[in-house]
C-alpha cells in the first residue's frame, strides 16, 4: 500500500526531472548561441574600427560614424594614461570615467590583446563592452578603442529568463498532471479485480499517451519555431559550432515529434484518412525506401494480381517501413522477402528476414507497448503497427518460422 501511495509522487518527480532537463538544456543552448553571436559581432566591429582609426585622425566625428554604422551605444578612445582622447557622444580630454571604463581591461588591450565581456547594467539591460588595441604607423599600440553595445546586441536575450521560468512552470504542471493520471489509475485498479487489471493498465496507457502527445506537441512546435527564427535572425553571424548546436536541438525536437505521433497512433487518437490506393505502389515505395536506408539490404518483392484497397496510405507505409526496418536491422545485409497475395476477401502480406529471429520468451508480449529487444528501441513500433492494421479491420501477427522472423499482415478488400 505504501508503494502504491508513493507511485504518483515518484512518477511526478521523474516527469518533472525529465521536463526540467529538456527545458534547461534548450535555455542553455539558446543563451550560449546568443552570447557567442554577440561576442563575434562586437569583435568584428571592434577589429574593423581599430584598423580604420589607425589610418586617420582620432576625432569624435569618425567615432560617431563608426558607432552608428555598427548600431553601438558608445565608442571612445583611451590613452595609455587613462585619459579620454576622443568620444563619439561627448567632448574628449580629461580622465576617463572609471565607472564606465575597466582599467585592467584597458591595460590588457594596450598589451595587444583585445577583449570582450559584459561591462555594466542599465536597469534590466546588460551593456557589453569591448577593448581593442589601436596601432600607430610603427605597429605599436598607441591607444585603445572602447565600444559599448546595448539593446541592438544583447536585447535579444532579455526574454530568455522569462522563457525559462515559463518552461519550468509548464514542467511542474505536466508533472502534476501525470501524477493525477497515475493516482486515478491506481484508484481504479484497487476497485477492480484481477481479471480487469490488464484492461485498466491499457486504459491508463492510452490516456497517458494521448495526453502526453497533445501536451508535448504544442510546446515542441513553439521550440522548433523559436530555434528556426533565431537561426534566421542571426544568419551569417553564427559560427559553424553554433549552427551545429541549433541543428542538434532541431533533430531532438523532430525525434520527440515522431515519438508523440507514435503515442497518438497507440491511443487511436488520430483518425484514418482512407482513400482507394494501389497496394503494389505502396509496397514498391516501402521496399525502395528500405534499400536506400540500408545499402547492404535488397528487398525482393513478389505479388500476384492485387486489388485496390481502401486504406490510409501514410499509415500503411508507416507499418511496412517499420517491419522492413526491423527486418533489415535484424539481418544486417542480404535479401529480405516481401510477398503479397489475395486470399478470398483479404490481402495477405508477408515480410521475411533471415536474422536471429524472435526469442521464445518475447513472442507472447512482442506487440505490447515498450517491449523491445533493441538496446536503443522505444518498444512502440510493433504496438503502433498492430494498432494501425487493426483499425483498418485487419491483423498483424508473428508467424512461426524455422529461421529468422516472418510477419503477416491481413487487410480486408472491403473495410
3D structure, described in words:
The chain is built from eleven helices and twelve strands. The chain has helices at residues 2-54, 60-69, 103-110, 151-154, 160-191, 197-233, 240-266, 279-293, 313-331, 360-363, 381-391, and strands at residues 74-78, 84-87, 115-122, 125-135, 141-149, 275-278, 297-303, 308-311, 334-343, 346-353, 395-399, 405-412.
Let me know the average pLDDT: 79
| Count of distinct strands | 12
Widest sheet, order of strands: 2-1-5-4-3
Overall helicity: 40-55%
Show the helix and strand layout.
Elements: H1 2-54, H2 60-69, E1 74-78, E2 84-87, H3 103-110, E3 115-122, E4 125-135, E5 141-149, H4 151-154, H5 160-191, H6 197-233, H7 240-266, E6 275-278, H8 279-293, E7 297-303, E8 308-311, H9 313-331, E9 334-343, E10 346-353, H10 360-363, H11 381-391, E11 395-399, E12 405-412
Parallel strand pairs: 7-9
Antiparallel strand pairs: 1-2, 1-5, 3-4, 4-5, 6-8, 9-10, 10-12, 11-12
Amino acid at each position: 500500500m505504501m508503494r502504491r501511495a508513493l507511485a504518483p509522487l515518484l512518477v511526478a518527480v521523474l516527469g518533472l526531472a525529465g521536463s526540467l532537463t529538456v527545458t534547461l538544456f534548450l535555455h542553455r543552448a539558446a543563451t550560449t548561441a546568443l552570447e557567442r553571436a554577440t561576442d563575434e559581432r562586437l569583435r568584428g566591429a571592434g577589429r574593423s574600427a581599430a584598423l580604420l582609426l589607425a589610418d586617420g585622425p582620432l576625432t569624435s566625428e569618425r567615432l560617431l560614424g563608426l558607432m552608428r554604422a555598427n548600431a553601438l551605444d558608445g565608442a571612445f578612445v583611451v590613452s595609455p594614461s587613462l585619459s579620454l582622447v576622443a568620444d563619439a557622444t561627448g567632448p574628449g580630454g580629461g580622465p576617463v570615467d572609471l565607472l564606465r571604463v575597466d582599467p585592467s581591461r584597458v591595460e590588457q588591450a594596450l598589451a595587444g590583446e583585445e577583449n570582450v565581456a559584459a561591462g555594466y547594467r542599465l536597469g534590466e539591460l546588460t551593456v557589453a563592452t569591448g577593448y581593442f588595441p589601436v596601432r600607430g604607423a610603427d605597429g605599436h599600440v598607441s591607444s585603445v578603442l572602447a565600444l559599448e553595445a546595448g539593446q541592438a546586441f544583447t536585447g535579444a536575450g532579455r526574454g530568455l529568463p522569462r522563457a525559462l521560468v515559463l518552461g519550468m512552470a509548464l514542467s511542474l504542471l505536466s508533472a502534476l498532471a501525470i501524477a493525477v493520471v497515475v493516482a486515478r489509475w491506481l484508484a481504479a485498479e484497487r476497485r477492480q479485480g484481477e481479471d480487469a487489471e490488464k484492461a485498466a493498465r491499457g486504459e491508463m496507457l492510452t490516456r497517458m499517451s494521448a495526453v502526453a502527445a497533445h501536451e508535448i506537441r504544442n510546446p515542441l512546435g513553439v521550440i522548433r519555431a523559436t530555434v528556426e527564427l533565431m537561426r534566421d535572425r542571426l544568419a551569417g553571424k553564427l559560427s559553424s559550432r553554433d549552427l551545429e548546436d541549433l541543428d542538434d536541438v532541431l533533430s531532438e525536437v523532430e525525434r520527440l515529434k515522431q515519438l508523440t505521433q507514435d503515442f497518438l497512433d497507440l491511443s487511436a487518437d488520430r483518425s484514418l484518412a482512407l482513400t482507394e490506393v494501389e497496394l503494389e505502389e505502396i509496397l514498391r515505395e516501402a521496399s525502395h525506401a528500405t534499400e536506400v536506408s540500408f545499402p547492404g539490404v535488397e528487398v525482393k518483392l513478389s505479388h500476384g494480381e492485387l486489388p485496390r484497397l481502401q486504406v490510409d496510405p501514410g499509415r500503411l507505409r508507416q507499418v511496412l517501413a517499420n517491419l522492413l526496418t526491423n527486418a533489415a536491422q535484424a539481418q544486417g545485409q542480404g535479401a529480405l522477402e516481401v510477398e503479397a497475395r489475395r486470399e478470398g476477401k483479404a490481402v495477405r502480406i508477408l515480410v521475411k528476414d533471415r536474422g536471429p529471429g524472435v526469442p521464445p520468451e518475447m513472442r507472447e508480449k512482442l506487440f505490447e507497448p515498450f517491449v523491445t529487444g533493441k538496446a536503443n528501441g522505444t518498444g512502440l513500433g510493433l504496438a503502433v503497427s498492430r494498432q494501425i492494421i487493426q483499425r483498418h479491420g485487419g491483423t498483424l501477427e508473428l508467424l512461426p518460422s524455422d529461421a529468422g522472423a516472418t510477419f503477416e499482415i491481413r487487410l480486408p478488400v472491403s473495410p
